[in-house]
């Protein structure tokens, strides 16, 4: 009997509680920067040659990158490549934040635990997006350094990624170049 009375009291209490509804935040209108990102949407084949050691034969690899839009404001890229016996996967998000007046994004992959946070800008002719992120040094464990990824739209069906890291003296060293062709 007590349990029934308690449940009845609880039900009455919940029924008499008023809830305040808040309007949904206003939608961000797509800008020219968002439109630029939409050019990346599609399925791409990635081709790269990397020099493993000075004087050694370059290593060639082929992978895929599939880029989808989330509405008109964000893109999400899913990359995959096999390096012999090692399978590599990556996910990248990119958007434009009008309040910060810059492109923003993230990068994660299957071989490292670091979450990369991008900030970047389009170049003057709006053909390339340069993104920068702080992360663990690939040459000196225990240190961090600044990295730069430059995504250039060569043609509507060909894009190029150049990745570089900043040296202690402020110069940039390119460590990877990838050409992507729309499939």
Secondary-structure topology with pairs:
Blueprint (H helix, E strand, L loop, with lengths): L1 H15 L15 H7 L3 E9 L8 E12 L3 E10 L2 E12 L4 E8 L2 E11 L5 E9 L7 E12 L2 E9 L5 E11 L1
Task: Characterize the structure shown.
By secondary structure, this protein is mainly beta. It has one domain: Lipocalin (Beta Barrel), CATH 2.40.128. The protein has two helices and ten strands, in the order ααββββββββββ. It has helices spanning 2-16, 32-38, and strands spanning 42-50, 59-70, 74-83, 86-97, 102-109, 112-122, 128-136, 144-155, 158-166, 172-182. A ten-stranded antiparallel β-barrel has the order 1-2-3-4-5-6-7-8-9-10. A hairpin with a 3-residue loop joins β2 (59-70) and β3. It starts with a helix and ends with a strand. Residues 3-10 have low confidence and may be disordered.
Task: Give the structure's gist in a few sentences.
The chain is mainly β. The protein has helices spanning 2-16, 32-38, and strands at residues 42-50, 59-70, 74-83, 86-97, 102-109, 112-122, 128-136, 144-155, 158-166, 172-182.
């Amino acid at each position: 009997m007590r349990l029934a009375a308690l449940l009845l009291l609880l039900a009455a209490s919940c029924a008499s509680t008023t809830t305040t509804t808040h309007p949904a935040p206003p939608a961000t209108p797509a800008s020219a920067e968002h439109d630029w990102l939409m050019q990346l949407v599609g399925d791409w084949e990635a081709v790269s040659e990397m020099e493993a050691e000075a004087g050694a034969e370059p290593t060639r690899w082929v992978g895929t990158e599939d880029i989808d839009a989330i509405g008109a404001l964000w893109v999400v890229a899913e990359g995959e490549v096999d390096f012999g016996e090692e399978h590599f996967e990556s996910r990248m998000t990119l958007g434009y934040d009008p309040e910060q007046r810059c492109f923003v994004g993230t990068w994660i992959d299957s071989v490292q635990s670091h979450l990369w946070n991008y900030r970047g800008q389009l170049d003057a002719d709006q053909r390339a997006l340069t993104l920068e992120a702080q992360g663990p040094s690939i040459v000196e464990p225990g240190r961090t350094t600044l990295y730069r990824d430059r995504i250039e739209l060569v043609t509507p069906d060909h894009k190029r990624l150049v990745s570089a890291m900043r040296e202690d003296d402020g110069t940039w060293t390119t460590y990877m170049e990838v050409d992507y062709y729309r499939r």
